[in-house]
Structure formats: C-alpha cells, structure tokens
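[scheduler] slot 2 assigned
[scheduler] job type: sequence-to-structure, two independent chains
[scheduler] chain ordering preserved from manifest
[runner] begin chain α
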Amino acid sequence: MAGLLRGATRILASWRSYCTKGQREQIGEDFVKALKAVVGEPNVSTAAAVLDQHGHDESMHRCSPPDAVVWPQNVKQVSQLAALCYDHGIPIIPFGTGTGLEGGVNAIKGGICFNLTHMDRVLDLNVDDFSVTVEPGVTRKALNSYLRDTGLWFPVDPGADASLCGMAATGASGTNAVRYGTMVENVINLEVVLANGQILHTSGQGRRFRKSSAGYNLTGLFVGSEGTLGLITTATLRLHGIPEATVAAVCAFPSIQAAVDSTVLIIQSGVPVARIEFLDDITMDACNKYSGLTSAVAPTLFLEFHGSQRGLEEQLQRTEEITRQNGSSHFSWSKEPEERSRLWTARHNAWYAILALRPGCKGYSTDVCVPISRLPEIMVQAKKDLKASGLTGAILGHVGDGNFHCILVFDSEDADEYRRVKEFGKQLGRNALAMNGTCTGEHGIGMGKRQLLKEEVGPVGIETMRQIKSILDPKNLMNPGKVL
C-alpha cells in the first residue's frame, strides 16, 4: 500500500498546475487513481448521479456536488485519504446520512466527499460504565437496537435516523434534550482525523471518564464544528438507564400563548419532564392528515414522563393542574407502547406532513433557541410574522429547552417566495439574538447562518474561531465555506 501511495504521489506531481486559485478546484484522473490506491476501485465514484446524491442534504440550499466520493473502511484509510488531499490542496467534505438542514455537506468548492457509512461498527460497549464507542456509520436507531437487552439506551433524538458521529459534528439535540441533554453533554471522547491526516483522541486514547479538569476541552471544540476542523471517526458516548415506566400525554390549548406559558410553568415548577413538544394548529392539522391522528386542530403539547410508577402519577397530576390553569382541554395520557409510538412517530414525521401541504415544493426548517422565559414572546411574534409574510408554514419545537422551528414550504423556482423565506429566517434569528438567545439550537450554522453567527458572537468571537480554524486547518480544506 505504501508503494502505491508513493507512486500515486509521483503521478500527481504535475497536477497542482490545473488548480486556479479562486476557482472551484477540479480533480484529474490521476488523483482519482490515487484515491483508488488507498480504498480500492469499488470504493471511489465520479458518477454524476452519485456526486449529485452527495452534494446536498435536506436543506433549502441548491446541490453543490463534490468531484469524487470515497468510502473508507477504517480510520487508517481516512487518515491516508486526508493526507493525500492535504498534500494536493483538495477540499474534504464529510458525509453521514445526509439528514442535515443547513447545507453542511454541500461541496461548494468541489473536492472529495468522504462517505463514512461503511465504518459502521459498535467498537466498545461498557455497560458498567454507561458508555459506548461507535464508528460514523452507526445511527442512533441502530445503536439503540444493539443496546436493547442491556437496560441502557442513548436518548438524544433529533427525529431523523442520523449517524451518531454526524450528530456530534452538528451538536444535535432533539425531543429528549430537556431531560437528557444534547450531544454536547453526551459525548465523552472523539477520535478525529485532522486535515493533514494526523489522528487525535480528544480526551486521550481509550478514555471514558465521567468528568475531567485536564486542560482545554478538545472534545467540546469538535462537537458542533460541522466538519470544519476534522473528520470524526469514532465517538464515545454517555448511555442512560431505560426508565422503569413511561407515560405520554397530549393536551390542546386555545392559543400559542397558553401552550407556551404552560411549558414555562412546568419547567419552572421542577417537573422532570422527559419530552415536551409544541405543535401549532397548522402542524396538528397536517399530522392528522398525514399520520392518521384524530387530535384537536389547536396549539398542542406532546409530553412524555420517565420514572417510577409512583413518580409518574405525581408528575402527571402536577402537569395537568398547570395546563388546566392555562385553559387546556382534552388532557389525555397513555402508558401503552403502541399509543406512545403512534404519537411520537407522528411528531417525527411532522416535517413530511407539513411538506405534504404543498406537494412538489421545497421545505426549510428554521431553528432558534431562547431563554425559556422569553419563549412565549418570540413564538407569538413568529406566528404574527409568518402570517404577515404570506408564506405557507407551521411552528413546532422542543420548547422544554427553549428551542423551536418554523417549517416553511415554498416554490424554489419562485424568486420572490424564495427571498421571503430567507428574509423570514434571518429576521427570526435576529429576534432570537435580541432576546439573548441563539440563531441555532441544534441545526448548526452550515452555509446559511454565517452572518447570524457573526452577530451572535461578535468580532472577537469570530476572530478567535478563525484563529482556531487556521491552526487546525491552515489550507482551509476541511468543509470550506461552512460556519466561517
């Protein structure tokens, strides 16, 4: 293999002259041969259909295909491929399941897409230590299936069956974050291939401690870095015990204000709710039609409680009292797994249910997070702004931690409608910043929120990020054009 690599490097000696600074870089046939020398011919593709498939996620951003796609089988190959790209100035774009919502996989400067799905092993399960180490191709559903008989589970749930390393890269969150935290709180250690091919273990190789005060938090640096600092090739994750009992509840409200006021009171009263999701009347109508629900078409909360049988009774009683004080009707609950599954499946399919309101159109999911005390104000304002915009859209979100979304459905070929969608998203982000919140609670910055990030962290924050990026990726090859 080493001989093949040296030969490939010699073949590529004259390739640099074909790259023009400031233009989208193109790879030549010799570079493709060099990639094949590392991973084998079946694991490299330059077919147009494959490139297009890897040039976009589920966001509104138009497809930007890479110049080639590679499927490494192990971290050694990832390291060799990265070193090859680094030596010849070729951009590197990581790809997991493609479920992102901010254009994180779009190859806007060309380059090589690293599809990491063939690295799909659960490497090290430590039941007694409540931890597991996984490769990038392992998805959250696959992990929980693997854990089924252990009494443990991984609760971070963004809805889509995303890859766990991809979730770490985007700092994902989801419906269970109010109780179990986001990826930030649940990643213990990462193995990362840096731009030049070096392999970094952010907490030290093989370490899986519960806490540490040892130097800079390198793990936290890479969680949410969106592939701009390195390629995550394994993640060691914190696991949790499966609760003794689970109850799901649904309650409708006369207004958004009443529903969100209830959310704030439930959290402030100390009820240890596991999930608390808000769906407005448009979302509920769409879910009724798409998922076969028969719920009231009104602002609604979906809730879930985890704990002992006695503890759940107290949680339900207190929650029902709070919701009724805010005008709730139809408060109902169920312990039956089938009913709970039907409810949460409908919630996870809300994206597709809302897209079905305008078949053939594109969707865009906004994503902001504010202090929970400001949640009623911003959500009521968002509903007013949505109506004023004339756009088709709905409001929903993980309101237990102040995070919510507007899903907008629009004709991507209608320039005016596309402009109004972008303007609405920017204004919502700025409203969140004005309320001491963030422009993204879980989707990340990607391509579309770079200006909002500048406004959020300020010039010193941006310059500090640029300095970190320049040290770890001096040639700006790691997922260029994202975040900064």
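[runner] end chain α
[runner] begin chain β
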Amino acid sequence: MGQDAYMEPLSATFYDLRCKIYVLLLGVCSALKLTVPSHTIHGIEGQPLQLLVGYHFNITVSDIQIKWMFEGSSMQAIPLLMSVNQTVVSDLEYQHKFTCTPPNASLLIKSLHFSDEGRYTVEIKIAGNERISARQNIHVTVDVPVTKPVIYTEPSAGVVEYKGNITLKCTVRNGTRVIFQWMKNGNPIEASTNYSLSANHDTLSIVPVVKEAVGNYSCLASNSVSALQSDVIMPTIYYGPYGLTVNSEKGQKIGKVFTFDKGEAIQFYCSADSNPPNTYSWIQKSENSTHVITHGRYLEVASEKMTRKAEEYRCSAYNSMTGKRDETGVFVIIGSAKMSQKGKYLSPLAIITGISVFLIISMCLLILWKKFQPCKAIQRKLQSRPETDYRKAQSISGHENALDDFGIYEFVAFPDPTGISRLYMKRQKKAC
C-alpha cells in the first residue's frame, strides 16, 4: 500500500504530461481523472463511513464500469461490488454492508468493525471511442474513541522533597492506539533531569521530588478520532522553609536595623515559603542569654518596654514535615530621630562604606593639592639639580640656599651721571 501511494502521484504526473502532448498534437485529450479527498481515512468502530470518490472525462462513452476491492490483514484482495452503468452487482457476503449508487463511485460502509481496517481500491473503466481506466487506493483505520483519562498518584500521601519520588499514571477505560501527553500548569512536559516517561508516556515519574515540581498536572489522551483531558491534580510535596523575611505590620520588608522614637511601638510579621505552613517563634538575644518571648508570626515591640537602647529579636521558622529550620533577625534601636518606616534603613555596613569613601576622596584631594603647589614644585626641581649649581647661585646672590632667591622682581631704570639709563632689579615679595 505504501509503495502504491508513492507511485500514484508519479503516474498522475506522467498521465497529465501525456494529455498535454495529445492536446498539442491532436487538440483533444481523452482523459479520465479519478480523485479521492485523502489516501488515509480514520473511522470510528460501529459508525458508518463513506469513501468519497470523484472522476470526470471528456470522451463519448457507452459503458462506465466501477469496481471496489478490499485488502485486509490477510493481504488478499477481495471483490466487494461492481457496477456497469446503473446496475450494481454485490458479493453475497457483503451486499448488506457496502453500497454504491452509480454513476457516483463513492462507497458507503454501513457499520465499521475492526475487520474492515485495510486498503480499499476503486477502479473505473470507461468504454467508448476508446477504452481508458484509472484507479485509486484508500487506507481505512478503525479506532475506538478514548474515554476521559484518570490520573493515579503513588504514593497517595505527600512526599518530602529530596527524600522521595512521585509516580503519576494516566489510564483510560476505552480507546485504541492511545497517545498520552503530560502537562504541568498547561504546558507540555518533556523528559528531563527530574521527569522521566514510560515507553508509551502513560506514566510520569518525578525523581527526585523538588520544590520546583509543585504544580497542577494533567494528562491528555488522544487517538486519530478523539482527544480528552483529565482533571487537574496537585501532588502533595512537603518543602521549606524558604525565603524567611521579617516584615512590618503593613507588609513591608524590614532591614537588618530598625530605628524608632521613644514612645512608639512596632509590630513585626515573620513569613517564609513552606508546605505545610511553618511554626514560628520569636527569640530575644541578650548579652549572655537567649530566650523565647512569644510564639506565632507576630511580635510587637514597644520602646517603653525595652530595657536597653538596642535589642536584637530573631524569628525562627520550623517545618515539622521536612524537619528544617531557618532563622533571621532584626536590631531594634531607640533613636532621637525617626527614620523612614518604608523599609529603607541605613545599615551599619552602609554607614561604614560612606565614611570610607569620604576618607578616600579627602586623601586624594590632599595629595593633589600638595602635588600641584608652585613653591613645592620649584623646590623639588631645584633639589634635583647638582650641588655645584647651588654653590654657583650662592656666589651670585649671596644666599646660602638658592631657594631664597625665588620671588617676584621689578625692573627699574635710573639715569647715572653720564646720562645713560641703567636697569636695576628689585624684588617685591617672596613667592614661596
């Protein structure tokens, strides 16, 4: 059947080419074109199925012969019926099962059974001023529609992350050639590190179970004639605590340090992601002791009840199923100036960082100021000169240190007794 399906388009191509040659040479093409909507048709067990066939020709005919053959699992061609013009002759065994109404060549199967699955061949012969024929094959499949799938979970109780595995099995009561597709939160699941699938994909294994596996799972069962999706289930996975935070009474995240004024009170709220929900306790840390002051998510701190100006309070979250515990804390300081209560506070690290940056910038500015002083630059230049130059300068100026000769000078002209002006240099002030 597969080889014929590939040969048919090729034969049709040669036939069309031959027809075009006839048109060019003779101006007439005596063609018979036989068409079917699809070479594979899917039927439902117990339902009728019609195999549609179309054909046309452009010659004068005297007889039209239609013949249907069936080839099942036995691979033996069985004649079903044959018609000449308006007369239909059916095989006695199949006359109540298959019908055809000439000149319409379509075949009606009244009620499909699994034994009707196979290849059907229709052949049409036309007799007239010439004899021509054509044939087509149609493959018929017979399936039972799937019923709504049901998911079974093993184990049915919850599983602790990293300590257990989960197996989900999708089953259908009825359905043939069923294809299974697993989905999480509406998205298809493919095999990965934590997900593995059975050969026919009816079983999904989560190994090992992790927090990321939490979600809504469903199974889609389908075949060529139907598709149905199961109800959504959410396997129980125990995990946490994760992301423990301390928030204000308004739900805003609190930093490591919280400052408020005398006479004020603040309510802290502790939360973490966990299943089942955590049990919480608040701990107060003193210099030499640690003790639980309350249980639950909330802690109220009033400034007048604080024995010191700064206190540390810690929230502890515990998951009884996973056996895991997490802890975080906040320093509460009574200050003279009220800081922003919007969750934005200057931490000790930020203060130290700011002071360090200020000192570094000040040092850089001081170095630059010293580097670019004119007097210092001149002194460094002179100090790099040889000692002989200093001695020479001393003999001329009379100063022991040549650096004393530097300053701002004014040139003045005075006439001498001969009437000739002479220039005299007068130092106004010392530059350095």
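[runner] end chain β
[qc] chain β: The first strand starts at residue 32 and ends at 35.
[scheduler] slot 2 released
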